[in-house]
What we know:
Blueprint: H1 2-14, E1 20-24, E2 28-35, H2 49-72, H3 78-101, E3 104-112, E4 115-116, H4 122-140
Helix pairs in contact: 2-3, 3-4
Amino acid sequence: xxxxxxxxxxxxxxxxxxxxxxxxxxxxxxxxxxxxxxxxxxxxxxxxxxxxxxxxxxxxxxxxxxxxxxxxxxxxxxxxxxxxxxxxxxxxxxxxxxxxxxxxxxxxxxxxxxxxxxxxxxxxxxxxxxxxxxxxxxxxxxxxxx
Length: 146
């Protein structure tokens, strides 16, 4: 969460909104964008501000569910605890943005030719890693307390 908030702060103070810096030609840029919507910018341009508040509320609810499972898991289930820790940290990073400024700062912009992956941030990376580890964990079936 600290690395997420630090990188977002650095982007906000060093880049204007929509400003772009090419890092690896034809593959990776740093681009300052704001996401008031859900994952991958879904509903980001929706004119109804209530949508943003609903997304924030659902994010907080999802965080509480993950926290509940985190507290229930046996301390021997290190793989699962690690995955949930990544998800919790990432979710907190994005929820802080939503509560403080009403949107999430995204800046990691990967693409090949004209095909862009949706711009994302460090928190999104941790959430994705956490979910991936959790899926592997469930597949392994060693700690099936879910």
